[in-house]
Amino acid sequence: MSALxxxxxxxxxxxxxxxxxxxxxxxxxxxxxDDLLQATVEKLLFKGMPEDAHAAKWSYRVCKxxxxxxxxxxxxxxxxxxxxxxxxxxxxxxxxxxxEQDLADVSAALDKLPDExxxxxxxVAIEGKTYAEAADILEVPTGTxxxxxxxxxxxxxxxxxxxxxxx
Length: 167
Known about the structure:
Layout: H1 6-27, H2 30-47, H3 55-73, H4 91-111, H5 115-126, H6 131-138, H7 142-160
Helix pairs in contact: 1-2, 1-3, 1-5, 2-3, 3-6, 4-7, 5-6, 5-7, 6-7
């Protein structure tokens, strides 16, 4: 492997937005996502990639592996909760606070998913990757992706879905 070719560098640049969203879906924190993205790009720039590698797929794979390495290095994952906006100032601020609370609820539900399910769901549902692309990125069979997404959806419905009113 050598330094990135011009075409690989362009493909990487074009993929940065999606890669950052993937980083956020893995970490649950904007600051941690930025750190993961930086570590991923640094690794790609330093180590390069094979000439025949698909730059986008390779970058997601490297990102996943950097994240796994980070998880293994941490004894306890540290999360930064979303801070609520003071809702006493205005109506629009209340709406912003509600949106932030909804995002925090979804994030908390995603955090309860096993890493394998969260990565598969993030690639397909958030990044718009096909099952085959997600399988290639995560280096698992397509059927495994389908299974992980089905389990992730079931788990999310249990944690975040509509609750029955018992009264």
